[in-house]
Write a structure and sequence with these properties.
The complex is a heterodimer of chains A (336) and B (447).
Chain A: H1 6-33, H2 38-50, H3 56-67, H4 73-85, H5 100-134, H6 140-145, H7 157-171, H8 191-228, H9 231-239, H10 243-281, H11 286-295, H12 299-327
Chain B: H1 30-52, H2 75-101, H3 106-123, H4 125-129, H5 135-150, H6 153-173, H7 177-200, H8 230-266, H9 268-283, H10 286-296, H11 302-313, H12 315-329, H13 332-339, H14 344-380, H15 391-400, H16 409-437, H17 439-445
The chains are: A mainly alpha (336), B mainly alpha (447).
Amino acid sequence: MVGLTPGYVLRRLGMWLLTIWLGATIIFIIPRLSPGDPVAAMVSRLSAQSGYVEGSAAMIEAWRARFGLDGPILVQYWAYLRNVITFDLGFSLSSFPSRVDDMVVDALPWTLGLLTLATLISFVLGNLIGALLAWRRTPGWVRNLLPLTLTFTSIPFFMFGILLIYLFAFGLRWFPPSGAYSSTNPVGFNAGFILSVLHHGTLPALAIVITSMGFWALGMRGMMVTNEGEDYMILAEAKGLPQHRIFWSYGVRNSILPQVTALALNLGAIAGGATLVEYIFAYPGMGYLLYLGIVNTDYTLIQGIVFILIVGTATAVFILDLLYPLIDPRITYGKG
Amino acid sequence: MTVSTATAGTTAAGVPAGKLNRWDSPWLNPKFLIGFSMVASVALLGVIGPLFWNTDLARVATSPQNLPPPWSAGANALTEEIRQRQIVADGAAAAQSAAAAQPPPASSETTTAPTEKSSLTGGNPLQQSAAAAPTQASTSMTGGNPLAGGTAATGGNSATGSSSVTGGNPLAQSGQSSPATSESTASGSQTTSAAVQQSQGRSGPITNALGFGAPTWDHPFGTESNGRDMLAVVIVGAPRSLRVGLIAAGLGITVGILLGFTAGFMGGWVDNVIRTISDAVITIPSLAVLIVISAYVRQVSVENMAFLLALFAWSGPTRLIRAQVLTMRERGYVQMARLSGASTFDIMFKEMMPNLLPYLAASFTGNVSGAILAATGLEALGLGPTRIPTLGMTIFYSIRAAAILRGMWWWWGIPIAVLVIIFTGLFLMTVGLDEIANPRLRGARAQ
């Protein structure tokens, strides 16, 4: 707890707010830069799809009220920010009576579970592989086998997901091709449901883990190689410390710090990639909801999800930033 | 792909120790060269491809639908099966014309139908190769067969088209119930339009139960359900993906160089502002924001797409260059240059730039890869340029038509294979450039 000075926390909090504000502002500006009146275009498209839209007047009303489209732009902006801060994301256009907030709340646990678990596994495995690759005392056969695990590193998550579906869902039929749980099990906290969730979640998680592992492994290997030349490693050897202690407390401990920074920097990209994985697997999380929003040109849904995604990654980075001084006590001595 | 040890020291092999050969440059990094040749070969395909292949075949309905590549496993068996069906169908047609002339010979009808059924279940190579074909698909197959057996060749053709529709849908519906409605209607309209095209097409091509035609070398990579030739799609699409990546990364790195040098040199509040904003932009999931933009701007050209991607491609290089400039500023040779009265511009571009080059190149290739990934992702969601075939768009169509579960691996597999070559090539280049920039990484290989 030494490193968590109030100044540091405040700076990070400011960064968190700035990121969310920037994201919200971008989402606010985009519809206004696009040609034409989005409200009119949307409603006409909607009524063209279904002939008659029940409560379309109320929808236009809600939309106009949400953006305050009649007032001057600054007033609109202020109203928008106020709505967004209270997570009032408005009505969905494609399934009108339901609110975007509720749809997001339904989808969020799936994404959080899949993404957190997959990222954690990939981070731990990847760093371990990278550290072992660089470690001088790794047995030869391990060192020769490890590069095999990095074969799929450069393939995008979702393309690898397609391959996995073809092999394991279509060909071998080991895993289901889509969904998050089978409809035969009652939703709830029971063994059948949990097993079904795990069964459905394996392929999407694998798609993320196997393709992102190599990124961490390479970074870790680079850091370990650099660290092995340092004086404190030679001193540790000279002191006769046990090898596992040198490996974990001297090598890995010092090399993991830039990796945590890299994790914070790449969370946005990982979240983006995972939305595509959910779309491929029809996994009922945020990514699939986003795809449905695109298919149905549901602008409120798209904007709401993107805003939540921005808040989510910013918060994750914020948490990582707060954890950082705990694993690296030096951080507050610098300029932060 | 060997990431570490295997390619060790090939550049320095055979060179006497202590003597620098002019070929012994760090830029002759094997990973970098292999990666570069992979990317270059894809670019070359786009340049020389149109010379020997008709790129008009990349348009819709220029080729027969659903032909597997002729070199694929089971292609010969499929050809044989379709030849058999042709014979049976001709026989059925003859029997019908005979039936029109004479009172119905019920015996001939019943004899032809069973033989066809046996050739279907016995000779279908794709059903055999996939260890266990999905049950729904196989039931709908058998549901489609009596129709194909009972009626004449032309009627049987449209029936197989509809059987492929029902073969695709139940599997799409096995996902969520509420989302599946939109997806199944999408794939349904897709395949029905394909079926309509098929019935309108040439005088009834014979297909197998899955709707696949006889593979020919006229379409070496096969064709998909919209009647596009896959080789032509690859030739047209691959260079487009590369171009999007190059433009976006080029713009991004230019802005990154400007901002990074400004921040590193000026320091103070300018540095603070630039660093804070680039940090914030890095955190925002760019793909999500790009989705919002392209959802509003439905018609995106390749160039506009690149500009959009560049909006998020500058923050990484800015961070990197700023950090490097900060450490370089204190180096001896920069101090020396400053003392000898060199202008800031000269220090930047004559002293620092050459030393930054490997970092810049690594950042550039990484960014090209990122931009192509984002572009393909948007296209795979159906948000790319719609008129021109791109690789991501092909993946989108294949997913929408449930090609994975219909066994049409060449439809999604070939664009993915090309993209994987691009990504792996760029990745190897990035790793190689990292080794060029950081000699310690090179040293580790030799151990």
